[in-house]
Amino acid sequence: MPDQLLYAMEVTLNGLMAGVMYALVALGFVLIYKASGIFNYAQGVLALFAALTLVGIQQGQVPFAHVINAITGGHLESFGWQLPSILAIGLTAGVMVLLAIVIEKLVLKHLVGQAEIILFMATIGLAYFLEGFGDVMWGADIKTLDVGLPQGINETLESVTDGLFGYGFFVDNLDIVAALVAVALVTALTLFSQYSKQGRALRAVADDHQAALSVGISLRFIWVLVWSIAGIVALVAGIMWGSKSGVQFSLSLIALKALPVLMLGGFTSIPGAIVGGLIIGMGEKLFEFFLGPLIGGATENWFAYVLALVFLVFRPQGLFGERIIERV
Amino acid sequence: MFYREAGDFKTSYREDNQTFPIRFDRMGFYAALAVAYGVIPLVIDDYWANAVFVPFLIYAIAAIGLNILVGYAGQVSLGTGGFMAVGAYAVYKLMTAFPDVPVFIHVLLAGGITAAVGVLFGLPSLRIKGFYLAVATLAAQFFLVWLFNKVPWFYNYSASGQITAPDRSMFGVFVTGAQTSATAKYMFCLILLTLVALVARNLTRGTIGRKWMAIRDMDIAAEIIGVNPLTTKITAFAVSSFFIGIAGALFFSVYLGAAEVGEAFGINKSFLILFMVIIGGLGSIFGSFAGAAFLVLLPVFLKNVLVGGLGWPTDLAAHIELMIVGGLIIVFLIAEPHGLAQLWRVAKEKLRLWPFPH
């Protein structure tokens, strides 16, 4: 097989893997949008916050050490323990649930019935707040996150492809784990929303707030529930991205990359988020591979958005979104 | 005569359409103009110009521009930073290519170029609405920043990839470059802001502004009563981008002096200006001023209190600033979704009836 084709295949494979990572973030968006009609810009920052908290808890950092030191002039650093990953992840999940409750109480409750765009702006405010809060709580330096996920090149795949084509593909183990986790997550979420009582309530709320209220479903409970789930999805995304590239501010920027994914897939479709993620991930890697060198490279910064923009002009509701019907 | 008018005394269309119907407000406006033109230029120094006044004036122009698009025409845009970059690079190319033309003309031309780019990216708004449009404008933001980073022609093949404002003067006074005095910077921006605000106010209360608002309130209904969505949305994008381009040109040439596109006109700039518009008040020219003043003064204030007053490290102060800005936005949206401008309107209502509210 010609080398160019082999490289392209490798790039495609890696693009698909990157797409899975985007889809992980996009999933959280879809959940909240479906249940509450809120376009949650803060999803990426939730992932950053979850990852920061996880590192903090795992390594026994003192929360707000920076502030306390600034006020008292002390030198607090850490409690000096090292928690096992599982325990730390569990505690962080607890923190995310707590955060969901606080957000519902302090923000969402007061904004019921406002225009969608106002809610969207509120989540931008929330994103700024959480970003500052995370940094104040845990410090802004770049941290490494290690919860024992396998990293580095997958040797089995390399030797298999080497045997088949005479060229070993490079695929990161972490990406494979992320893909598996994404599949598991989507399966779990689908089962939950299709077969559990709460899941049914969730779908009812997504369908019609008023009608759901009138049959006795507590809207506020559903909101807490869905923000908790989104927080935990954010934690998963934070673990994956944090293990891959360190826990730092740029983590919250992947949320922006998840937006074109959503636009392609449609805001209301869970499978759409996955398919959109795969298309964007593959598309931007292939575009960079074939055309990037001709026009100066680093096209990954904008390709996803432009693709989504062009696509939307032809199909405004995305691939799997519900048809937009407008009435006067 | 502290405040007046507690009824409807208007007898002509002209009176009905006044910007400041109450005499006291009118006096206040003229007084503010007199102070801005007569007093501040005499006493301003470099610190005040660079920390407060020049950024305020420039952001106010940008906020007015964005407010036309978001507040009046209802088209949410997250591409403001990218459009400001177009203004900055356009003025840079013009200034270096035609050194003899007055820089004032260049700034206006840069606005015009930005308007053309804005129209281009505004075209999809005919098909894409709401959030989808907001995300689509991110394409403008990222693509434009990338373009100015990657194509050396835009930064005249300079080794650092930066653009640096050359020295240019008007009427013998430097307005750009290193030798510019604080007064010159301030006056140049102030004159442009005054023009922009006047144009914006008069556009928004005329036919075109009403069309924008009709499209904002319900586009399908507006279309049915005969508002052409194509021209209306496109003019909103054009006018908005024109102002934003002017703001970008001033931000680079007068305020920064040298700029690197990703840093000066990144996505954060888009959000900052959007916040100014929200906090100030959607659909209000006064609100654009209030929002710009608020978000320019807040960091200066916090920095003075936290770093200067309490002696905390700068990075911590920056994080707390993020928290406060974010928190304030939420508080504003909950308490008053129409921003500072609405607070002012409510206060005026109360003042009219004072001291005998019924």
From TrEMBL, chain A:
Single annotated GO MF: transmembrane transporter activity
A Gene Ontology cellular-component term: plasma membrane
Protein name: Branched-chain amino acid ABC transporter permease
Compartments (UniProt record): Cell membrane
One GO BP annotation of this record: amino acid transport
Residue ranges of the TM segments: 12-32, 39-59, 79-103, 110-130, 176-196, 217-241, 261-282, 289-314
Keywords associated with the record: Amino-acid transport, Cell membrane, Membrane, Transmembrane, Transmembrane helix, Transport
Superkingdom field: Bacteria
Family statement drawn from the similarity comment of this UniProt entry: Belongs to the binding-protein-dependent transport system permease family. LivHM subfamily.
CDD domains: TM_PBP1_LivH_like
Primary location: membrane
Membrane topology of the entry: Multi-pass membrane protein
From TrEMBL, chain B:
GO cellular component, one term: plasma membrane
Pfam families noted in UniProt: BPD_transp_2
Protein name in the entry: Branched-chain amino acid ABC transporter permease
Keyword DNA-binding: no
GO molecular function: branched-chain amino acid transmembrane transporter activity
Its membrane topology: Multi-pass membrane protein
CDD domains, alphabetized: TM_PBP1_LivM_like
Assigned keywords, A-Z: Cell membrane, Membrane, Transmembrane, Transmembrane helix
Source species, domain of life: Bacteria
InterPro entries assigned: ABC_transp_permease, LivM-like
Locations listed in the record: Cell membrane
PANTHER family membership: ABC TRANSPORTER PERMEASE PROTEIN, HIGH-AFFINITY BRANCHED-CHAIN AMINO ACID TRANSPORT SYSTEM PERMEASE
Primary localization class, coarse: membrane
Transmembrane segments: 27-44, 50-69, 76-95, 101-123, 130-148, 183-200, 236-259, 271-296, 316-335
